[in-house]
Write a structure and sequence with these properties.
Elements lengths: L1 E2 L1 H10 L6 H17 L2 E2 L1 H4 L3 H5 L1 H7 L4 H13 L6 H11 L9 H12 L6 H17 L11 H14 L14 H13 L3 H13 L6 H13 L1 E3 L15 H13 L15 E3 L7 H13 L6 H6 L6 H13 L2 H9 L6 H4 L5
Parallel strand pairs: 1-2
Antiparallel strand pairs: 3-4
Helix pairs in contact: 2-6, 2-14, 5-6, 6-7, 8-9, 8-10, 10-12, 11-12, 12-13, 12-14, 13-14
Length: about 350
């Protein structure tokens, strides 16, 4: 499968000014998708990054705050066909500058370690950092019940840890505690919240761990991709200019399709800057249940029986979604029981089981 020159041009040339944060973020993600899922770039597509690659080391020295993005793009380009040792040189520069010591985020440190390991042997400092990080992440995922309340920043920490620990599916994950239960909890919540961006990332994590996500989750993401509308508004060139641009969801959905060896990035942009939007929908299952639980457990304006009856007032589409979520994995019923502190029990949920 190929990533066409048309698709690449729209992100490498049209949507953002080169070296802007949005440019680095979007193109870094696009190239990671290609390099990690076996997509080949058409020769003309690769040429859109030639000047960026040639100047990358100097750019990294001038914009040290962006070195993670620059290094990742450079190494992906080399893995996708560029001839050169710029990635190795930037790795040496990062180590010489001691950039690991400047980071306070475990996620960023792990990303840096993963990048460095792609081009150079691990030194004593990197090895010490990695051992501490793995111990910290093991503790982070050791209590899956921490992932039964919706907390999007926490959830993305989890997915990014899996991305970097496995080097996007290339390595075996070096953890004592298996992360699947945590990931499954997050996937259930993403599904009930109709958050296809996060759900796609969770499915990708399953793939990187060598596991198969629930069939319904993959199908849900695939169907959601068909609902994305692509328009071409020159006044909105990136997600930084519009909070409603769903380019990231578009990327994650296509990444999952690429890992499943299905056709990806099939739209024809004709060199124009695309703008992506998802259809507006009614409130999904999760916020409705969350509101009812708040009224029951905090505001005390609703009884547990009335809260349970909320399930019966769901719209037909939300009832179907809840039913499909329960059928997709047995863990859904247990999560809802814990999430509701027993209000949504086996009896109340039984009317939604197939």
């Amino acid at each position: 499968m190929f990533l066409t020159a048309d698709t690449v041009r729209s992100f490498a040339v049209q949507r953002n000014r080169e070296l802007s944060f949005a440019y680095l973020k979007e193109n870094g993600e696009l190239l990671s998708i290609a390099a990690s899922s076996g997509l080949l770039l058409e020769p003309a597509a690769l040429e859109h990054y030639r000047s960026f690659y040639d100047d990358a080391l100097n750019t990294c020295e001038f914009f040290p705050q962006y070195f993670r993005f620059i290094l990742a793009i450079v190494m992906d380009l080399e893995d996708l066909g560029y001839q050169g040792t710029t990635g190795e040189k930037i790795c040496d520069y990062v180590v010489s500058q001691g950039y690991l010591d400047y980071e306070t985020s475990d996620t960023r440190r792990l990303e840096i370690l993963t990048l460095l390991a792609r081009r150079r042997p691990e030194g004593d400092i990197e090895r010490e950092y990695r051992e501490k990080l793995i111990e910290s992440i093991d503790k982070f995922i050791s209590k899956p019940d921490h992932f039964i309340k919706f907390n999007k920043p926490l959830f993305y920490e989890l997915t990014h840890f899996i991305f970097f620990l496995t080097n996007y599916g290339q390595n075996t994950i070096p953890l004592k505690n298996p992360p699947i239960e945590c990931l499954t909890n997050v996937g259930i919540l993403a599904l009930l919240d109709d958050d296809v961006d996060l759900l796609a990332e969770i499915c990708i994590c399953f793939k990187f761990l060598g596991e198969k996500p629930p069939v319904f989750w993959e199908k849900y993401v695939e169907n959601a991709l068909s609902e994305i509308t692509t328009s071409f508004d020159a006044s909105v060139t990136s997600a930084l200019n519009s909070a409603t641009d769903e380019y990231h969801a578009y990327f994650m959905m296509n990444w999952l399709l690429a890992l499943r060896k299905l056709p990806t990035f099939t739209e024809n942009f004709n060199g124009r800057p695309p703008y992506f939007s998802l259809p507006e929908k009614e409130p999904s299952v999760l916020p409705i249940l969350s509101d009812a639980l708040y009224k029951t457990q905090i505001a005390k304006t609703m009884s547990p029986e009335q809260c349970s009856a909320t399930l019966l007032t769901l719209s037909p589409s939300n009832k179907t979604l809840l039913s499909d979520a329960l059928a997709s994995t047995p863990q859904t019923a247990m999560l809802l029981f814990k999430y509701s502190q027993g209000v949504f029990n086996e009896k109340t949920l039984s009317i939604f089981t197939h």
